[in-house]
Amino acid sequence: MTTPPFILAIDTSTLTASVAITNGTLADGVVRAVFSWRGAVSHSSRLLTVVEMVMAEAQIGFGQLAGLAVGLGPGSFTGLRIAMATVKGLAVATGLPLYGASSLDVLAAAIAGDWQVCAVLDARKQEIYAGRYRLVFGRPPQRLGDIVAIKPETIGALVDAPCLFVGDAVPVYDALWRQQLGNLYQAAPAYCHFPSAAALGLVAGQLRQQGAPLPLAAATPLYIRASDAEQNLERAAGSMRPIRPLDKTP
Q1: Over pLDDT 90: what percentage of the chain?
Q2: Cβ-defined contacts of 47-56 (< 8 Å, 24+)
Q3: Which residues fall within 8 angstroms of residue 80, CB to CB, at 6 or more apart?
Q4: Does the bond joining 74 to the residue before it have cis omega, within 30 degrees of 0?
Q5: 86, part of any domain
Q6: d(Cα 79, Cα 87) in Å, to the nearest integer?
Q7: CA distances from 72 to 57, 124, 173, 217 (A)
Q8: Is the pLDDT reported for residue 147 higher than 80?
Q9: How high is the pLDDT of residue 248?
Q10: Domain containing residue 10
């Protein structure tokens, strides 16, 4: 009997966490179950309970999964470690392959249509994480350049055409960008501003078709910049951790 290609996807990179069961890709996939929540306590206190609940809702057992997916970030350092530790533990226990995608890639993947998208997450300390994408309907988003940590007022250096902005930095810097970018700026609806595990699972379905799992030993969060502790100890500048792009087709 062929194992159905169901994916268990987890993203805890922002204050809104998400777990989903999906089948297929962005072009032809199905979301079997999804649950998102935002709370004052750590995501770790609820994550495994939500995983059990979502799998029960989807009527899926671990033996029916074809893989696990995790949002790599950038985002909350603590949140990224929670999701990574959870999926690595599940991968070791089940032997399932692991797939990962940047949380900015996932934000862009949730937008439909022919657009340029600028995915932006609030990095605190008056900085944002940003990535620009080209969307073509029915295909994974194509990232244009690197994911970066920058000051919000310098976003114009990334934007040379009308862009749809998505991510939790949008409500924080909306007024600034409307004034600064004019017709080049458009904000996505509020419900689009957190990385959805449903979109992550469908992105992982694409990576599964491409035969592109993450080696478990090499799977690490995409931090972009150094943590406060690293900056205090080493005065380190942020660095880019390379990950596999979603689509290399120009």
Answers
A1: 76
A2: 47/10, 47/12, 47/17, 47/19, 47/82, 47/83, 47/86, 48/86, 50/17, 50/19, 51/8, 51/10, 51/19, 51/86, 54/8, 54/19, 54/20, 54/21, 55/8, 55/21
A3: 12, 13, 71, 72, 73, 74, 221, 222, 223
A4: yes
A5: yes
A6: 13
A7: 25, 18, 24, 14
A8: yes
A9: 43
A10: 6-104+194-234
Residue 129 sits in the same domain as residue 170: yes
Q: Are residues 149 and 172 in the same domain?
A: yes
CA distance 129 to 12: 16
Query: What's the pTM value of the predicted model, to 2 decimals?
Result: 0.87
Contacts of 225 (CB under 8 A, 6+ apart): 74, 123, 127, 149, 237, 238, 239
Can you say how many angstroms the Cα of residue 159 is from the centroid of all Cα atoms in its chain?
A: 21
Digit-coded pLDDT (tens) for 199-240:
999 999 999 999 999 999 889 999 987 655 444 444 444 444
Residue 139 resides in a domain? yes
Average model confidence (pLDDT) across the chain: 88
Residues 44 and 155 in one domain: no
Answer yes or no: is 241 within a domain. no
Q: What is the DSSP letter of 31?
A: E
CATH of residue 226: 3.30.420.40
> Are 10 and 91 found together in one domain?
yes
